[in-house]
Amino acid sequence: MARRKRILRWPVLRQLRGQDPRGDAARSPRTDALRPRTEEADTVARSVCPYCAVGCGQLVYVKDGRVTQIEGDPDSPISRGRLCPKGSASKQLVTHPGRQTHVLHRRPHGTGWERLDLDTAMDMITDRVLRTRRETWQQEEDGKVVRRTLGIASLGGATLDDEENYLMKKLYTALGAIQVENQARI
Ligand code: SF4
């Protein structure tokens, strides 16, 4: 009896006898027991892939406060559930052990990175921005008032969202910087 059962489980026989030769016959009990990790999520958040300007919709699955899976959002009119390999791997952006969570600084002519606390790094950036603006300020050019600095430029990345880009443009315009660009437009 056991032998007969084993023979009947033989894939070729299951394909010949089954209604759906490429469906049930190709499934093993182990396959049937597998469950998607998205099933165990506590919450699902809607988001946008941060990697490029296409802006594919994502569903971010969270369990116990941690991201467990990121998949394409079928309701997105942009991507209709699809993600390219970069977008499919974006879970690593938040969970990869190699992710940097501290400010790192390499001094001029330095050969290694130093860890800085955030306050120190912000002070250093502020000093540099104010000094550069003061040293490169142009009040006029060819008799015309320009009130600008060409010593400061910004190239934003696609990981910035609309609101962040809006605030950055406001800040740079207030500083007199006119070279403001984003990777998404390149
Ligand atoms: S999934 Fe790919 S194509 Fe879509 S936004 Fe992300 S990187 Fe761009």
Please tell me about this protein's structure.
- The chain has three domains: 2-33, no CATH class; 43-95, N-terminal domain of TfIIb (Single Sheet); 103-185, no CATH class.
- 33% of the residues lie in helices and 27% in strands.
- The protein has helices at 2-8, 11-17, 29-33, 85-88, 91-95, 118-136, 162-175, and strands at residues 43-48, 57-63, 66-72, 103-105, 114-116, 137-141, 144-156, 177-182.
- A three-stranded antiparallel beta sheet has the order 1-2-3.
- A hairpin with a 2-residue loop joins strand 6 (137-141) and strand 7.
- The protein is elongated and about 100 Å long.
- The model has no long low-confidence stretch (mean pLDDT 90).
Write the layout of secondary structure elements.
Elements (H helix, E strand, L loop, with lengths): L1 H7 L2 H7 L11 H5 L9 E6 L8 E7 L2 E7 L12 H4 L2 H5 L7 E3 L8 E3 L1 H19 E5 L2 E13 L5 H14 L1 E6 L4
Parallel strand pairs: 7-8
Antiparallel strand pairs: 1-2, 2-3, 4-5, 6-7
The site of iron/sulfur cluster has 11 residues, from helix 4.
Q: What's the total helix number? A: 7
> Got a strand count?
8
Relative helix content: 25-40%
Low-confidence stretches: none
Strand order across the largest sheet: 1-2-3
Q: What is bound: which ligands?
A: iron/sulfur cluster
Inertia-based shape = elongated
Query: Could you state the order of secondary-structure elements as H and E?
Result: HHHEEEHHEEHEEHE
**Proportion of β residues?**
25-35%
Structural class: alpha+beta
Number of domains: 3
The pLDDT mean sits at: 90
Rg result? 27 Å
